Amino acid sequence: MPYRPTPFSVDYLPKTHHTLLHKFYRHHKSSMCITEQADAWVVRATEIIAGVCLSPVAEGFWLTSLFTAPAYRRQGIARLLINHLQDSYVDKPIWLFCHPQLEKFYCNLDFVTAHQLPEPLKSRLTRYQKNKTLIALCYHHS
Q1: Which CATH number is 129's domain given?
Q2: What's the confidence (pLDDT) of residue 68?
Q3: Residue 70: strand, helix, or coil
Q4: Which residues does residue 113 pair with via DSSP β-bridges, in sequence order?
Q5: Per-residue pLDDT in tens (0 to 9) along the chain, 142 residues
Q6: Cβ(41)–Cβ(84) under 8 Å?
Q7: Backbone phi and psi for residue 10, each to the nearest 5 degrees, phi listed first
Q8: pLDDT score of 3
Q9: How many Cβ atoms sit within 10 Å of the Cβ of residue 3?
Q10: Count: domains in the chain
Q11: 19, exposed or middle or buried, with CB in 10 Å at 0-12, 13-18, 19+?
């Protein structure tokens, strides 16, 4: 794939700066949140335009709180962010829960249906599915 310069940068957000991502979520009235143990990553133009959290779980990571500012959607920002995570966390699986309508998006990023989940995620998914339809997906660097 040819190199294409991008006006966006993907940056790890140190825990001391998690409040910046929290403010981004609140500014957009998003219910996304950051857990204390999560690694937070952001995409910046001149300001934060997208964010995601990756929390350690069992022998891998759980991807949560992916959110792109509405003005930047459908420009490949979420894909850029997830591809960066896939390149940065190569030795362990990454799980996520998503609404069924997002399955194709994640499958195009090499996520597959997670037939087995670590117990902490399995019980959480069961609890979440009482109120909404979610599917579990997993990515593992090949």
Answers
A1: 3.40.630.30
A2: 96
A3: helix
A4: 137
A5: 444 556 789 999 999 999 999 999 999 999 998 988 899 999 999 899 999 999 999 899 999 999 999 999 999 999 999 999 999 998 899 999 999 999 999 999 999 999 999 999 999 999 999 999 999 999 998 7
A6: yes
A7: -105, 125
A8: 47
A9: 5
A10: 1
A11: exposed
CB 78 within 8 A of CB 43: no
Contact assessment for residue 126 and residue 64, using Cβ atoms and an 8 Å cutoff: no
Residue 38, judged by CB atoms within 10 A of its CB (0-12, 13-18, 19+), counts as buried
Look up residue 80 and give its two tokens: 């850029």
Indicate the burial class of 112 (C-beta count within 10 angstroms; 0-12, 13-18, 19 or more): exposed
Write out the residue range of the structural domain in which residue 58 sits.
Answer: 9-139
The owner of tokens 């670590």 is 118
Dist. CA 24–CA 32, nearest whole Å? 10
- Asked if residue 88 belongs to a domain, the reply is yes
| Cα–Cα distance for residue pair 41/83, rounded to 1 Å | 12
Answer yes or no: is 1 within a domain.
Answer: no
**Cα 74 from Cα 81, distance rounded (Å):** 13
57 within a domain of the structure (yes/no): yes
**pLDDT for residue 75:** 92
**Residue 112 in domain:** yes
DSSP 85: H
Residue 1, pLDDT score: 47
